[in-house]
Amino acid sequence: MRGWSVCSLALATGVAMAGAGVTPDDLPAVLERFDRVQNSIRTLSAEFHETTTNPLLVNPIQSEGRFYMTKPTAIRWEYSRPEEMRFVIADDQYTGYFPEQQRAEQRNIQRWREHIFRFFGVGQASSELEKFYEIRLDTAHNELPGTYLLVLEPRRKRVRKRVEEAWFWLDAATYLPQRVEYRSADGRSRRIEFREIRVNPDLAAGLYRVDIPSGVEITTGFSGLPSFDPDQAGGAH
User: Fold this and answer.
1) Tens digits of per-residue pLDDT, 135-174?
2) DSSP 8-state code for residue 193
3) pTM above 0.85, yes or no
4) I want to staple 63 with a disulfide (CB 3.0 to 4.6 A). Which of 40, 50, 75, 220 is the partner?
5) Does residue 226 lie within any of the structural domains?
């Protein structure tokens, strides 16, 4: 119940701020409330809709599925459309399973664990994000009512080659990410919109296990997160 009480406080203060006319100077207050909510989260679940654009594609790729997280280090990212896919990170191990393709991936991700959580926009306080990103509150380009738009620019040049900007739309009532978008200099983008977000639900430990049938080819790839390149990760050592 503690998590919900913190979210309730954020809701009340957030609605008041949103109605008062936000300016870029309000960034510290927005981040303070964001941190309160982030610190209250133990588990999280949500449905998502993902839109991937690429100048080489005629039409964007539309995907949807469910997302689960248990702090500090467990994530399950499963797609139901257009193709069934499951991606799990737990105990510093990444597993991706593509049933229709009869293939799977496994890789140790200890080096990139914290960066992956930053990639999803959850589980990280603003002080941690600011180690790797310049953060600003953008009030001029926010077309999504009832949200605060945080624009994150990577501090490291090698990361900017991969992701030019990350845009986080925080719900003004809950301070949870409602939409996350990654944009690259070559025109590619990946937008993830969250809905039906549940804070601190009871999640079974077995949720973060992927049973791979015998006979399925297993490689050491990392295609489950196409916008995340471990070799260019801001948190890599």
Assistant:
1) 999 999 999 999 999 999 988 776 666 678 889 999 999 9
2) E
3) no
4) 50
5) no
Instruction: Show the 3-state SS of 214-225.
Output: CCCEEECCCCCC
CATH number, domain with residue 135: 2.50.20.10
Q: Can you give the residue range of the structural domain that contains 202?
A: 2-220
Task: Specify the DSSP element, H or E, that contains 97.
Answer: strand 93-98
C-alpha span between 137 and 118 (Å, rounded): 18
Tokens 């964007």 belong to which residue?
Answer: 60
DSSP-derived 3-state class of residue 80: strand
Q: Report, as ranges of residue numbers, the positions in the chain whose pLDDT lies below 70.
A: 1-21, 112-123, 158-162, 224-237
Q: Check residue 121 and give its pLDDT.
A: 57
Structural tokens at position 40: 């209250």
Question: How many domains are there within the chain?
Answer: 1
CA gap 126, 43 in Å, rounded: 18
Asked if the structure places residue 168 within a domain, the reply is yes
Residues 6+ away with beta carbon under 8 Å from 126:
31, 34, 35, 135
Rg of the chain over all Cα atoms, to the nearest angstrom: 18
- Residue 228's pLDDT is 52
